[in-house]
Amino acid sequence: MCARTTFNENRVLTLSAFLASLFAGGGLIVGLLVGSLVIVFDGVYSLVSLLLTILSLVASRYIRKPSDAQFPFGRAAFEPAVIAIKGAVILLIVGYSLYSAIGALLTGGRAVDVSIATVFGAVNVIGCGLAWWYMASLSKKRFSGLINAEVKQWQMDTLLSVAVTAGFIVAWLLTLTPLATYAVYADPMMMLAMSFYFIKVPFGMLRSALREIFLMAPSQEICQTVDQSVVAASKESEQEIELAGVTKVGHELWVDVDIYPDNNSEMILLEDIEQTRQTIEKRLASLPLKLQISVNIAS
Fold first, then answer.
1. CB atoms within 10 A of CB 11
2. Are 205 and 83 in contact (CB under 8 A)?
3. Calpha distance 195→96 (Å, rounded)
4. Three-state SS at 252
5. Cα–Cα distance, 292 to 67 (Å, whole number)
6. What is the pLDDT of residues 141-181, one digit of tens each?
7. Distance CA 195, CA 82 (A)
8. Closest Cα to residue 58, out of 38, 82, 33, 76?
9. Do 214 and 206 touch, CB atoms closer than 8 A?
10. Mean pLDDT for the chain?
11. Which long-range contacts (CB under 8 A, 24 or more apart) does 43-50 make?
12. Cα separation of 64 and 250, whole Å?
């Protein structure tokens, strides 16, 4: 990973940790004061996001260490491992919130001070939205799985804040109508709806990370790009070249290629190996990943 990418990654993760600490403290205090399930959930989510961001920051520095006897193939697998942990923890939070919402609905709802809750929700929407936008713009400049996971966290937090604020506005409007007695169900109903909606985000993070940990095939787009690069290398070579395997692990792309020698001399074959490697590297240069290309002589 280059120095510029490392700096960008550390800057984004540090900023995310600082912002998450502010929203976590505010969410927990306000949520407990007004008795809102969704605001407490928002605060707990921000607190967990803070802990997970610190974990990402530590992992980012650890991944940069060079290969050694203990990790001969590097530490790229730590990136999907951290993302898997983040996805699993967020999934547990959403699951528990779903359970709490159902329990509140069955026990008569929850009375909430909607005026304070609405103001806090509006502040959260603006703050989380700005954080999401800023980190997303930085992630476009340099690829990083850890930053992408961070962007998804803030995306969830922003959408959560929007839903919370909209729900409290609806609850406040209900208090002005003959249906005021049903306003106590607004808070758990919001939590119930958001739990079902947000559960797909951490599930997607967990599934994607596990695919990398178990060295499964990457996205179809990456596979097609790699396959095209191998076909191009085969056309430029006098030897038969086949793609043996490809997988993405963190910020690295591992490509395994087999060359089937003909009756030419060994020197020509060695030249073909280097030419094959260069052709594939050139074709895959546009991918924001560190290439690890292995060219094998097949029997």
1. 13
2. yes
3. 9
4. strand
5. 13
6. 666 666 777 787 788 778 878 877 887 888 888 888 888 88
7. 23
8. 82
9. no
10. 80
11. 44/93, 45/90, 45/93, 45/156, 45/157, 45/160, 46/20, 46/21, 46/157, 47/20, 48/89, 48/90, 48/93, 49/16, 49/20, 49/24, 49/153, 49/157, 50/17, 50/20, 50/21, 50/24
12. 12
Cβ-contact 217, 223 below 8 angstroms: yes
pLDDT tens digit sequence for 225-251: 999 999 988 888 877 889 999 999 988
Tokens at 77, concatenated: 């697998």
Q: Are 246 and 256 spatial neighbours (Cβ–Cβ below 8 Å)?
A: yes
Report residue 103 as tokens. Answer: 């329990």
Amino acid, res. 215: L
Which domains are present in the chain? 3-213 (1.20.1510.10), 220-297 (3.30.70.1350)
- Cα–Cα distance measured from residue 239 to residue 273, given in angstroms and rounded to the nearest whole number: 9
